[in-house]
TrEMBL record:
One Pfam family of this chain: Nramp
Keyword annotations: Membrane, Transmembrane, Transmembrane helix, Transport
Protein name, as recorded: Nramp family divalent metal transporter
Gene3D superfamilies associated with the record: Sodium/glucose cotransporter
Database matches in InterPro entries: Na/Glc_symporter_sf (IPR038377), NRAMP_fam (IPR001046)
Length: 406
């Protein structure tokens, strides 16, 4: 019982990562997947959870063994100046541009839920939300941010998991979709989207930073592992719950976002509370992602440049503030930077397999990791995950380049 309490108290960095990947994009993707394909591609959510746990577990080992970030480990991996320059700068640009490009969408997604509750236009609410997040990031400590993320995770869990049970899906079909992989016609892009929205490049850098803020050396390795496994599993359950709810309520319909679930929930929750219930969940998802995205950009840049001070550092907060302000301005004027988003998607398509492969190489360096390098079983699992993630990244890059020149 004492061990269980100790594990619960250790939950934190993993929850930050989970709250990060469950944003408006994830919520919308899960809703569209359920509406378009029912429960048939639920297995992709399960795979994404396993892949994320495997990769993030490697990150916590690296962070605790070396007391360094992923960026520092990558920087020191290359002896050749040109190779080091290309990998470091491409990685930083991919993450920073991606976070800045998606920031407007995160703020608008947050405001979509809040806008329904307050009846205020999203382009007015989004900048206000951005300023609130900027204030939290600049004035708040890591502990405060962690508590906010934990609270948002509780709200998302209460909303979306409750919705799943309220709609009473066919559990036989649900388990079939989760454990018997299939790829229905025209579903391959959606499968890639489901996995890609969970395995996020900047979370590798953010997780190492969060682990340094919370845990103290190798004595905390098992607690950090439990934190990662439990947190990401909960995130997968929330993501799966959204897909399952959409599959039960709006299968076969064209939808843009999770608010579409509110209509079919009216007979269960009532005309007033159904949209309020869903809007609260959407707000929590958006706010968590909008807070994590600039943290991810700052953690990535700080790690590559070996800046000291962690999340308290002035340079960390400078990058954090810059990314937020870009989102505030673009969301206020209603600017949809499609070309920038496509470039960011292409860059992330390049960087995801590169980072995944580099993590795999670094975690197997005996001189660096010692007894904590991957064993044979972890290497087989890790290789499979890296191979699939690399394929997804390359496919995403090709798709973005085609769209850009199309």
């Amino acid at each position: 019982m004492n061990r269980f309490k100790e594990i619960l108290k250790a939950l934190g960095p993993g929850m930050v990562i989970t709250a990060s990947f469950i944003g408006p994009g994830t919520v919308t993707t899960m809703t569209r997947a359920g509406a378009g394909f029912g429960y048939s591609i639920l297995w992709a959510v399960l795979f994404s959870v396993i892949a994320t746990i495997v990769l993030q577990e490697m990150i916590i080992r690296l962070a605790l063994v070396t007391r360094r970030g992923l960026g520092e480990a990558i920087y020191d991996l290359f002896n050749h100046t040109v190779g080091k320059f290309l990998v470091v700068w491409i990685s930083m640009l991919a993450v920073a541009i991606g976070c800045a490009a998606y920031m407007s969408g995160d703020l608008l997604g947050t405001s979509l839920g809040l806008g329904y509750l307050l009846n205020i236009p999203t382009n007015i609410l989004a900048p206000i939300v951005g300023i609130i997040i900027l204030t939290i990031g600049l004035l708040g400590s890591y502990k405060i941010i962690e508590k906010i993320m934990l609270g948002l995770m509780v709200i998302m869990g209460a909303t979306f998991i409750t919705t799943m049970f309220l709609v009473k899906p066919n559990w036989g079909e649900v388990f079939s979709g989760a454990f018997l992989p299939s790829i229905p016609d025209s579903s391959i892009i959606m499968v890639i989207a489901l996995i890609g929205t969970t395995v996020v490049p900047y979370n590798f850098f953010l997780h190492a930073t969060a682990v340094h803020e919370r845990f103290n050396g190798m004595k905390d390795l098992n607690l950090a592992r439990w934190d990662t496994i439990i947190s990401i599993a909960i995130g997968g359950l929330i993501s799966g719950a959204i897909l399952i709810s959409a599959g039960a309520l709006i299968y076969g319909q064209e939808v843009d976002n999770v608010v579409a679930l509110a209509g079919p929930l009216v007979p269960i929750l009532g005309e007033t509370w159904a949209p309020v219930f869903i809007s609260i969940g959407l707000f929590a998802a958006g706010f968590s992602s909008a807070l994590a995205s600039p943290m991810g950009a700052a953690a990535t840049v700080s790690s590559f440049f070996k800046w000291e001070g962690g999340m308290k550092g002035k340079k960390f907060k400078m990058v954090f503030g810059t990314v937020i302000l870009i989102g505030v301005v673009t969301s206020a004027i209603g600017f949809e930077p499609l070309e920038v988003i496509l470039i960011a998607q292409a860059l992330n398509g390049i960087i995801l397999p590169v980072i995944a492969i580099l993590i795999y190489i670094i975690i197997n360096k005996k001189g660096l990791m010692g007894q904590y390098k991957n064993g044979p079983v972890l290497n087989v699992i890790g290789f499979a995950v890296v191979a699939v993630v690399s394929f997804l990244g390359i496919y995403s890059m090709i798709d973005a380049v085609t769209a850009f020149f199309g």
